[in-house]
Structures are given as C-alpha cells and as structure tokens.
Amino acid sequence: MTGAMPAEAGLRLDDGSLVIDRVETLALRIPLDRRYSGSAYSMTNRCTIITRLHTRDGLVSQVYNGDTDDEQPMIIKVIHEELAPRILGRSAADPERLWSAMEPATNDILRDRAIPLQAISCIDTAAWDLIGRALELPIRRVWGSLTDELPMSVIGGYYHVPPDELPDLLDSYRSEGFGACKFKVGGRTPAEDERRVRAAHEAAPTLVLMVDANQGWNRAEAVEFGKRVGDLRIRWFEEPCRWTNDRRWMRDVRLQTGIPVCAGQSETTLAGLRDLIVDAAIDVSNLDVSWTGGPTIWRKAAGLCAAFGVEIGHHEEPQIAGQLLASVPEGTFVECFDRQRDPVFWRLTQLAEGIADGRLRLPMGPGFGLEFDDAFAEGHVIDRRVTQ
C-alpha cells in the first residue's frame, strides 16, 4: 500500500511550499466480466487515471479520477503536453491560481471541452490532496467537515439481471452493508421498468430506492413512469429525460409526478448547473467533480446549490465524493458500483472496508486518505507518463 506522508510535520502553506516539480500519471484499464448497459450506453472496461503530483517538499498526491475509456489517451495527452508546462514550478497551495493557469486548455473551439476539463480535474484533485497532506488533515476537515460518515448507496439493477434474480441481487446489496440502491431504468417501456422496480422494492423494502434513466425517455414516458411508481417513495428520479429538451422536460416531470429529480452529471460547467436550477429542473444536483474541473469548481457549485435550496449528490467517484459531500450540509448519498462493475473501488483502495449499516465511514488519513494497492494498479497500467 502507498500513500505519501509529509516529509516534515507542520508544513506552512505559502508561495514557497508545495511547489510542483513533477507530474506523473498512470492510466488503468480493467476488462469487466460482462457488458454493463443502461438505457442508452454500455461499457466493457473500467478505466481511470491515477495522478501523482510531486513537490519540492517531498509530498506526493495519491488520487484517481474518471471512468472514461475512448477519451483516456486524449486526457493524458492534455495533462502532459498542455497542463504540466503551465503548473510546473507553481504552488499547489493556491488552487485557484493553479486552475487559472490551466484554464486556457479549455478554449480550443475545435476540441470537445470535456477533454481538457477532465484533465484539469485530475490535476485539481491532486492539488487539493497535497494541501490536506501538508496540513496532515482529511481534506473534508480543511473544507469544514460536518461528519466523518455518510449514507451509502450502490448503483445496480442493470438490464442483464433477469427479474427473477432481482431478489438475490438486492439481498446481496443489503448484506454488503448498503442502505440504498440507485436502480437502472429508461431502457424499456415505462410499464416494463415499473415491474422491475416493484420487484426490487418488494425484495428489499427497507432499502432506499433511487431510479436512474440516464436520459432514456421523452417527457411523456418519464411522466408515465413516475406516476406508475409514485407509491414506492422513490428518493429521486435521476436524468429522466433525453438531452434534447431535458431542462424543460425535467421541470415537468418533477411537477407532475411529485418525485424529486436529480441531474447535473452531464453538465460540465457551473453555468450549465445554474440553468438547471434557475429553470426549476432539479431538486438534487449530481455534478461530477471529475468531469467539471475538480474540487475547486465543485465547491462553487455547492454554494450555488445552497443558495437555491438544492440538495447535493455526486455522480459515482466515491473516493472523491465522500470528502466533498461531508463538507457541506446539503450532502446526500455517496454512491459506488458493485464489485463486478467497479474493481477499482473495491480493489485499488481500502475504502470499501468502511461500508456498514447503510453508511460509509470516511478515511481519517490526510488529503483524500487514499492508500493504493500498488500490485493491483501495476497489473492494469496501459500508459505511464512523467513530465518534470
């Protein structure tokens, strides 16, 4: 296990500390046991990027971000060819200035801005990890933590699971210590998915249920489904409508069904989240720190949500989301996939050991508190790069 500690206790955070002199990335790709399909997507690999920023003080960050496959080489390229030259010699103790130095990478109008934003997310997350390690505090404490544990949900109910196997699946979630399940819908008719969700509810009536359509339905279909399951106390209805007119349609879904609507993971900017909120489209934001530019941006999004009374979740990424959600009063569930769908969460770190009684006990180590199983990581590295 690795997890670099401060070279000396009590490092001061000033312009001369946490100066970055090396950027290292490890791209991981792990083949999954099957194809996992939602309403309009599928994947066969679990991919992520480990980012290690080395400083003159002897500190090294230890974080991982993201779940993209085809984009991974482009993200790595941006990190080393565009971002690293802009941050080497700068202090990670000033994340706002560091973010501003990286921002020009987003301005290429001929490139999907999601690529540089994911690259910036890797660096920004690593910089905040360094701050926590320098102060010898969990990063949630640096941000003003309210708690050391949060409710935990598992993402499941994929379409490869036959309805008659749902009771065993839901029972396995309970035995793993989860208190909630985010269940996949949107890939069948509202009537068919109602039957699947009812089977899940009957199998585990004490589990809190969310449903996630991954933008699979039009407005009428989403409203129909919401009314069909209205008696099941669904915690939230995530991304119910297709992207073509989602803000207005999601507003209609929440007003016509009475089920809280969750969205934001498909947005990459604060402005996009702002419009969801101002247009009354959501009750819960699940903006993804690894898609939007890192914790520096997510914390601003949290303030935006607080101003409008919107609850805060997070799209996947429990290794980062737990620390973020614990630092704000509006935080809701940390979420993860099961063992087969996300071997990175279950095998790269020890975080899963904190799941019990429906909650996740957050690590007490400095920064994001992540210690890696290096043998597991090395067995799945497809690209290793260093810039200094």
Describe this structure in words.
- It is a single chain.
- The chain is 37% helix and 20% strand.
- Strands 4, 5, 6, 7, 8, 9, 10, 11, 12 and 13 form a 10-stranded mixed beta sheet that branches. The protein has a 4-stranded antiparallel beta sheet with strand order 3-2-1-14.
- Strand 7, helix 8 and strand 8 form a beta-alpha-beta unit.
- Helix 1 packs across helix 3 and helix 6 packs parallel to helix 7.
- The longest helix is centred in the N-terminal third of the chain and has 22 residues.
Short description:
The protein is α/β, with parallel strands linked by helices and 388 residues long. It is 37% helix and 20% strand.
Subunit arrangement of the protein: single chain
Number of strands: 14
Spell the H/E element sequence: EEEHHHHEHEHEHEHEHEHHEHEHEEHE
Number of helices: 14
Report strand %.
Answer: 15-25%
Radius of gyration: 20 Å
Mind summarizing the main beta sheet? 10 strands, mixed
Q: For the record, give the distance between the C-alpha atoms at the N and C termini, rounded to a whole number.
A: 25 Å
- SS-based class: alpha/beta
Overall pLDDT level: 94
Q: What shape does the CA trace take? A: globular
* Fraction of helical residues: 25-40%
Low-confidence stretches: 3-9
